[in-house]
Specification:
2 helices, flat, two-stranded antiparallel ribbon, mainly alpha
Length: 80
């Protein structure tokens, strides 16, 4: 196994990208810290409101939806 140095961070070495992680900041469990339940609930409510408003307006909120909207407009002979 090749030996990497911190100066190799972000470089291609032997055809692979070298990335050094800061282990001092990494959570002990190896995963990202959990967001408090109240904050998750608030974010879920905000996301639901955003999606509901977009659906009510017929506004696409992703690239696939935008493409489908443009294709439908093209088929109808309308400007996209």
């Amino acid at each position: 196994m090749p030996s990497y140095r911190p100066s190799d961070h972000g470089k291609l070495v032997d055809g692979r990208m070298v990335i050094f992680l800061d282990r001092a900041r990494a959570p002990a469990s190896g995963s990202f810290p959990r967001t408090p339940a109240a904050e998750r609930e608030e974010l879920a409510e905000l996301q639901a409101a955003t999606l509901t408003a977009a659906a009510a307006k017929g506004a696409p909120f992703c690239a696939e939806c935008e493409q489908a909207k443009r294709e439908l407009a093209r088929q109808r002979g309308e400007p996209a």
